[in-house]
Amino acid sequence: MGAKSFLEEIQAMPGGEGIRLCIQCGTCTGSCPNANRMDHSPRETIAMARAGLREEVLSSNAMWFCASCYLCTVRCPRGIKPTDFMHILECIADRAGLSTKHTRTPVMYRTFVDNIRNNGRIHEVGFMRGFYFKTNLFRALGMRSLAWKLWRKGRMPLRAKKIKGTGQLRAIIDKARALGGAL
Amino acid sequence: MRYYVYYPGCSQEATALAYGQSAEAASKALGIELAELEDWNCCGSTPYGSLKELEALSVAARNLALAEKTGLDLVTPCNSCYLALNRTNTLTPRHGRRSPPCP
User: Fold this and answer.
1) pLDDT tens digits, B30-80
2) Which residue in B40, B55, B80 is closest to A173 by CB distance?
3) Which residue of A has its CA nearest to B91?
4) What is the C-alpha separation between A42 and A72, in angstroms, rounded?
5) Which of A17, A68, A140, B97 is most buried, with most CB under 10 Å away?
6) Euclidean distance between CA atoms B92 and B7, whole angstroms
7) A89 and A44 in contact (C-beta within 8 Å)?
8) CA-CA distances (angstroms) from residue A163 to A125, A170, B5, B41, B67?
9) Of the candidates A109, A112, A172, which has its C-beta nearest B102's C-beta?
10) What's the ipTM?
């Protein structure tokens, strides 16, 4: 990464260049359905990023709680895309091998990525099975009543359907990884 | 009769089954013919793109490439898939660069 500052690192990714326009009005935080669960609110996270507090921002749970509802993006008076900014922070954190102990979201996302590489599409049952195995298997038991209802309605296919072009897709994924994973 | 190539999205075969069925039924009633995109893959939406940016754009691009071959416009009922595919479509001309083909 060289001597790139944290801000430069963020601005290099699509959607990140806007944060320099932030006036700290807090509309994003006010719109955010998960702001109360975050270590630092969206507004605060933008301020911290601009102040170069790389470690504090990347070890915070804030971006992992982004639900991608896009309300912040719709309402930001400066045309910033805080959702994209949150996704950028997740990417940077993942590349740096950082996770936060406060949330299971990174594990969930990583399981998702592995599932795609295997099947080409998400196999929901396999995905959740992998996730529960890595986190807490007993929580899966708590979902059994919902699972039964979904199963009865044919909404829980147990067998994974692989696409024909899995080889092709894996070549694409591996090439993207070889290129460093970033644009 | 309007023809579109149709991207269902992964959830439509599972938890969003009803959503897919109603989208297809509504399209039929509106005189829209939907042809499912052959061998579509994951769109690379939030859980993917939040973690691995270039990978997510690349897997989405495969869908766009497959759709391009049909010559039809691509539609999807899933808002996340739409966002992922549309975003990839916008970013690829801007950031795409020539590199040696995959082995």
Assistant:
1) 999 999 999 999 999 999 999 999 999 999 999 999 999 999 999 999 999
2) B55
3) A14
4) 9
5) A68
6) 19
7) no
8) 17, 11, 17, 7, 16
9) A172
10) 0.87
